Amino acid sequence: xxxxxxxxxxxxxxxxALMLNGLGCLFLGxxxxxxxxxxxxxxxxxxxxxWALIATGALMxxxxxxxxxxxxxxxx
Length: 76
Prior knowledge:
The chain has helices spanning about 5-10, 15-35, 50-75. By secondary structure, it is mainly α.
């Protein structure tokens, strides 16, 4: 099977946007785990750290998604 023709049509996404999106999802998940199970957080974590993780993760996830969408739209 020759995959050269199909790989050439597949858009290449910016690696930074994918990493930003992935880290945003990770932080969002860590914040949700800390919110639902506060005993899972490290003992020295400040009381509101889960909200900071959720907010940071959401912003990173939105920024990464927007970069991906703009990169795909620019290639049309």
